Amino acid sequence: MLELKQEGGRRWLGDGSMQLPLAEFGECRGRYQGSVFLLASGPSAGGFPLARYADWPVIAMNGSIVRCVDQKITPFFYICDDPGFVRDRPDLACLGARSATHLAMSLNCFQALHRHDPTLLPGRANVFLLERVNRRHGMAVLSDRSYAWSVRRDPDLICGFSLLRRKTNRIGFSRNMSKGYFGGRTIPYAATQLACHLGFSQVFIIGMDLNKSIGRFYETGTAALPSSLDEDFEDYILPSFRIVAEKVSPRFPLRLFNLSPDSRLPASVVPKVEPTQLDALLEAEMAATGGKHLRVSS
């Protein structure tokens, strides 16, 4: 069993026969600037011309790695926090882990990946551990209400709080992945927090259709994995992105844009942009930087 080990400020994953050093999120906070694409798995991602925007970094997640491979794009990050996905689609999880420059997964995903292919992780560089807020390894777990109250003055953790409704205390946004992230019941929300942590200020989300009935672009019929989008949308997904619109973007340099024209998320929460608008936003960014793509801060 792959386990998390820690000694003298160092952390690694090990199973007795190998040690995999972990990179820490604190080392890459705010290192990047400009625009980033988040590639989700809704059907609209299948038709997006990803190769046209190959000069910009892409954060892939779960099965969306298929589109990166098809378009010959090396993802900047590949992320996954669903061990069920790794168990049910290990081929895609392995593809993401091999293809991306940086790899970020939850511990149970790493464990499932290592069980499937013990040769994949040894020697792999740029590996990060995804940890949810109030579930970080080695730290006491508080009740949702107590945790929300404890971080109410932390500028890195924008969180709801309610004495009456438990779900409100589970919804928030992390600007610092070293302190954990909020799940939001959809992996693009974790990717949004990662993009903010890294320093990107303009985030374009591809394939965030959030419609259970139309599935994912890379699977059909009986091969399609189950989804809880309908059950989670009103209580978790919509309120999570609403926090970004109402409490994060007005205070911090983070703008989200939805490239899915038929996304279930209303444009009042995440503005929807068409291809011509996308190009105009990217051209304006390049003009402001003398024609250069903003990447690593100097």
Total number of helical segments? 8
The SSE string, one letter per element, is EEEEEHEHHEHEHEEHEHEH
How much strand content do the residues show? 15-25%
As residue ranges, the low-confidence spans are 294-298
Distance between the termini: 41 Å
Residue-averaged pLDDT? 94
Described by the principal axes of the CA atoms, the overall outline is globular
Strand arrangement within the widest β-sheet reads 8-7-6-5-4-11-12
Backbone structural class: alpha/beta
Please provide the count of β strands. Answer: 12
Q: Calculate Rg over CA atoms.
A: 19 Å
Helix content: 25-40%
Largest sheet: 7 strands, parallel
Summarize the structure.
With 298 residues, the chain is an alpha/beta fold.
Task: Kindly describe this structure.
This is Lipopolysaccharide core biosynthesis protein. It comes from Pseudomonas denitrificans. The structure is a single chain. It is built from eight helices and twelve strands. 41% of the residues are buried. By secondary structure, it is of the alpha/beta class. α4 links the parallel β7 (102-105) and β8. Helices cover 29% and strands 16% of the residues.
Keywords:
298 residues, disordered C terminus, 12 strands, 29% helix
Any chance you could write out the topology, listing elements then pairs?
Layout: E1 3-7, E2 10-14, E3 19-21, E4 35-39, E5 58-61, H1 65-70, E6 77-80, H2 83-88, H3 90-99, E7 102-105, H4 107-116, E8 127-129, H5 144-150, E9 157-159, E10 172-174, H6 187-198, E11 202-206, H7 229-248, E12 255-258, H8 275-288
